[in-house]
Amino acid sequence: MVTCRPAKDLARAASFTLTNMRPYYEQYSVDWDEAQIENMTKELANFDILFEGQLVGVIRLSFDNEECYLRDLQVVQSYQNRGIGSFALAEAERLTKEHGFSTLKLRVFKNSPAVHLYKRKGFGIINEDERLYYMSLTVS
Asked: Which of 74, 79, 81, 93 could share a disulfide with 56, CB 3.0–4.6 Å?
């Protein structure tokens, strides 16, 4: 069973991000460490993802006047491909609606396997640059 709760340990969540994103950071010469990630995420809405009660990932959202942004979705590699990412996206959609918004946006490295998940869940590419896709989903 997959559940979400408000994040209890931002340092642990930062370690998920650094572990999963390290290959992209190295490829694109992004110089991040856990402390920087933790500090950056303090202003976001952070949620732990639990699988059978065990902490296996994190969702981070931000809200502006009109839209919700999925700033980060990380699942520990050994728990990927079990439907946890799909659950987390559904939770992000629910939170988007709960906050009164109808658009959920994100950005993702073009070479990330997560692109396929986002497309399968209905996100469309609205812009791109040499490294990233900028994607959007209308939440109903």
From this structure: 79
- DSSP 8-class letter at 100: T
How far is it, in rounded angstroms, from Cα 119 to Cα 106? 12
* Domain of residue 42, residue span: 2-138
pTM of the model: 0.88
The Cβ of residue 116 has, within 10 Å, a number of other Cβ atoms equal to 9
What is the model's pLDDT at position 18? 80
Strand order across the beta sheet in which 2-6 lies:
2-6, 45-51, 54-63, 68-75, 103-109, 132-138, 124-128
Q: What is the CATH number of the domain that holds 100?
A: 3.40.630.30
Say how far apart CA 10 and CA 122 lie, in whole Å: 29
Q: Which amino acid is at 6?
A: P
The DSSP bridge partners found for residue 49 are 4, 57
pLDDT in tens, 8-53: 899 888 888 888 888 887 887 777 777 788 888 889 999 999 999 9
CA 61 to CA 45: how far, in whole Å?
Answer: 5
Average pLDDT on 109-118 reads 94
